[in-house]
């Protein structure tokens, strides 16, 4: 298995555990979530599988084998989507092959259990399986835990509580031991007793994630027709891979009151060239957050108390929570591509209008990571370090998961770790990465005339860069200091003919001389910039 992380990062995780970060939770009294029993009632056909998933295509052409260096991905599409999404799926497979993946596609009957689905994935392990993308309403494993937020090895209501939730770790762990030997009886001080109820409650043996799993599931979104949402989403993924949809390399780390003094070492700058951290408790609220969603950017991380369908910000000078509900996202049309949701149960995809699903099905969204239960990610530095290396979202999820699972010397109180991380999942396409916003093949037509670059020669707050292209070109724009060190990358993707403008805000740059360099199809232009303070 490919490893992306240096061992020295392990110490950071241990220290984070000792800090006992305040848990992100649903602030409503007695919130009512879909239970396992209700989910089974809604999906009565997810019983015994009769014939297994039907493999309709294995993409292993000579062209694919020549390009393949990223491993095998199982694309599992719900049977009811087979015909409506045929063109979308064919295009997705073609694009994924071009990125270096080998794709095995199957249509999965809704009569199959999650255990059957896991057996199928295990058959692909020897063929180099690295991940699975599940499309539509497909089976899920559920887990139950008595949370231990105090990390004292005990269960102490009301500070601790019982939860049951779907977890994709079950599918990702191909050789671990999962058991159902307890059932929930509802007693406040001792909620579990011996028995079986269809919900896993024990995970042992080789517990690590062998592959990654991501879901593209619009079946619980009730604000737009399901098939239309898939069409829009797959079209957006295709445009992203062809650099027809690009995002400025900008990120926000938006932190509400309870975490304003934490997560400083989040390493988001390894993913985005420009990162703004919003920690001002007089500023963070639903209105301000909505305004920032309307800006163009690549990566939005938000830390806020939440439910499956809402964020609850602590509003300045207001005793009530300032809410942003999921049903507002279609009209807001957020412009970010990727979302890290440190937001309780915000990616609980089995709920109606789940916010984590809505983030990537509306606006410019491509993928979200978050939890199906209380808790979420703590070590942003681990996740972002993997993403910053150019790895996929699936790879980053797997590395983070194995980080907290495998190092029990750092986690003697395993129940605490399960309470925080067992529900972490990826909603969206796990094969996507955030470093490669360009198509595989680039037209090599020469420019008809030399490129030109105009800049603001002297600046305090913002440097404006303007340039013109006579035809479509691969464009890269970088800022260097006087020693030749790269300071910022403003663009690296395909742009059409015409005049283009960019702005560089040298907030963290000291006074002095800098250089802006424009490269397009073999030609370069360099301009001097002087920052004055």
What brief labels describe this structure?
533 residues, eleven-stranded mixed sheet, five-stranded mixed sheet, Rossmann fold, globular, alpha/beta
Provide the helix percentage: 10-25%
What topology, given as strand order, has the largest sheet? Answer: 1-3-2-4-11-20-19-18-14-12-13
Mean pLDDT equals: 84
CATH class of the domain at 9-31 and 241-424: Alpha Beta
Rg, rounded, reads 24 Å
Proportion of beta-strand residues: 25-35%
Q: Based on CA inertia axes, which overall geometry fits?
A: globular
Given as residue ranges, the uncertain stretches (5+ residues, pLDDT < 50) are: 1-18, 47-51, 59-64, 438-449
- How many DSSP H or I helices? 13
CATH architecture of the domain at 9-31 and 241-424, by name, is 3-Layer(aba) Sandwich
Distance between the termini: 49 Å
The total beta strand count reads 28
Q: What do we call the CATH topology of the domain at 9-31 and 241-424?
A: Rossmann fold
| Structural category | alpha/beta
- Biggest beta sheet summary: 11 strands, mixed
